[in-house]
Amino acid sequence: MEWIAPVSTALGAVIGVGATLLADRLRWRRERADRALETRRQLYAEYSAALSRIRSALNEAANDASLSGEERKRRVRELFLAPGAYELRHQLAILAPEDIVNASGAAFRLLRDTRDRILEGADAASPAYARLEDAYDAAIADLRRTMRRDLGVPDRIAE
Question: How far apart are CA 128 and CA 94, in angstroms?
Fold first, then answer.
């Protein structure tokens, strides 16, 4: 009968330590998931902004009649690389789910195609340029929907 008190004490200590360890583990997982979500949120915002800057720069180049020949090609290539979208795509490939990677690649490829048409001499009034702009609008809308879904942002905010 004298062994009941020490066994009860030991059992209580094991339960207490186990509960503390379990609570710490759950808190660590939750904090890790929160950090991962915040990292993706920041990366998605940076990538979207980079794509927007590229599109604006390409549009500006497509409307600029003063640029010609090699100067135009150099300027368009420079504008395309400046926002850092290539680097951000590599980060997306590591951190984002596959559907985000696919949608981001589709939007990026359309901007690259737009760049190539401008390098070939297309301007903002050309039908090929207009088709690429429309396709990009659809691709970026799809990318944003996919990003919002991954981040858990509702489609509609209750009023």
Answer: 33
CA neighbor of 148 nearest in space, from 80, 99, 89, 94 = 99
In whole angstroms, how far apart are CA 150 and each of 13, 40, 97, 128, 132? Answer: 42, 9, 8, 33, 27
Give domain limits for the chain: 36-151
Q: Tally the residues of the chain.
A: 159
What tens digit of pLDDT does each residue of 135-152 get? 999 999 999 999 999 999
Angle at 88 (CA atoms; ends 137, 95), nearest 5 degrees? 105
Task: For residue range 39-67, list pLDDT tens digits in order.
Answer: 999 999 999 999 999 999 999 888 887 87
Distance CA 81, CA 22 (A): 48
The answer on pLDDT for 28 being more than 90 is: no
- The three-state secondary structure class of 74 is helix
> Hey, what amino acid is at 18?
G
Q: And the tokens for 141?
A: 């809308």
Structure tokens at 112: 């690259």
